[in-house]
Recover the amino acids of this structure.
């Protein structure tokens, strides 16, 4: 475990090492339970940002925490080059409850974008003709 560092130093490090794309509130959140969070000074807040990331069920939801503990104690990650029962069950559930015939599980947003381009190129582009991409203000249209 890392040595304990005071809040002021951590906030200074944050200003120095994080990109400034978010206007961060100058408090250091140290724990959460349900819709409540506590900062390093012991102040309690109601967290109304639960639409961000995976906290829609609240912080430390017992069902989510239990599932994470069970997964970590059993088998936390299996590469797509192997089969894993939880992944197969989830794929079946998603197909049976959506428009899709199959699913592809990705490890990152970059992998998801790459898969989307490949699917478009291999299934849509032959009929449509071309894939158009954008970079900044430039439109790329292949010959």
């Amino acid at each position: 475990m890392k040595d304990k560092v005071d809040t002021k130093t951590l906030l200074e490090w944050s200003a120095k090492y994080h990109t400034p794309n978010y206007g961060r509130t100058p408090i250091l959140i140290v724990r959460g339970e349900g819709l409540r969070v506590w900062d390093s000074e012991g102040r309690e807040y109601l967290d109304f940002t639960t639409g961000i990331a995976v906290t829609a069920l609240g912080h430390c939801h017992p069902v989510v925490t239990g599932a994470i503990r069970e997964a970590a104690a059993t088998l936390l990650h299996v590469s797509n080059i192997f089969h894993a029962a939880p992944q197969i069950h989830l794929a079946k559930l998603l197909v049976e409850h959506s428009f899709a015939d199959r699913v592809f599980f990705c490890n990152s947003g970059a992998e998801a974008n790459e898969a989307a381009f490949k699917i478009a190129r291999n299934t849509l582009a032959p009929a449509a003709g071309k894939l158009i991409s954008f970079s900044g203000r430039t439109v790329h249209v292949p010959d």
Remarks:
- The longest helix spans residues 109-128.
